Amino acid sequence: MRAQSNIFWILAVFFFVADAGYTVWSLLSREFQTVEWTGTLGIGLAGIMSVFLGFYMNRSHFAQSGELPEDRLDANIDDGDPEIGFFNPFSWWPIFLAAGCTIVFLALAVGMWLIFIGAALTAVALVGWVYENYRGVYKH
């Protein structure tokens, strides 16, 4: 986590320097000759978010019980390879779930009657995806 923390601190410095440069550039511009607030605040808030993330990563690094494998120079690839879980080789349910959610959001533009079709497809796809490993070829 030490490397991630350093990256966010470096990004924070970059964003604050870029924010100052952007503000000076907008003041010297012939078109504006005033502070352009959208870009100035956007870049400044990106710097503040980098500070937040760098502080969080720094505190997490000091709170953990030891060095992570990615922070050690003598670590092997297998040291940071925990068991994540079981995943099927392929599944069609996420595609149907995305189609159902798409139909629900499409109802906002086309007509509210589509929500019923999209909600039904979403519910069937969600149940099918959750219970996929309880029946068929990949049954446990």
Average pLDDT, all residues: 89
* Rg (C-alpha, Å): 25 Å
Tell me the number of helical segments per DSSP (H or I, 4 or more residues long).
4
β content, as a range?
under 5%
Query: Structural class of the helices, strands and pairings?
Result: mainly alpha
Oligomer: single chain
Helix content: 55-70%
Overall 3D geometry? flat
Helix and strand pattern = HHHH
Give unreliable regions as ranges. Answer: none
The figure for the number of domains is 2
Tally of extended strands? Answer: 0
Largest sheet: none
Compute the separation of the termini in Å. 37 Å
Architecture overview:
By secondary structure, this protein is mostly helical. It has 2 domains: 2-71; 93-134. 61% of the residues lie in helices and 0% in strands. The chain contains 4 helices and no strands. It has helices spanning 2-28, 37-63, 93-106, 114-130. The mean pLDDT is 89.
What can be said about this structure in brief?
The protein is mostly helical and 140 residues long. 61% of the residues lie in helices and 0% in strands.
Write the layout of secondary structure elements.
Elements: H1 2-28, H2 37-63, H3 93-106, H4 114-130
Primary descriptors:
61% helix; mainly alpha; 4 helices; 140 residues; 0% strand
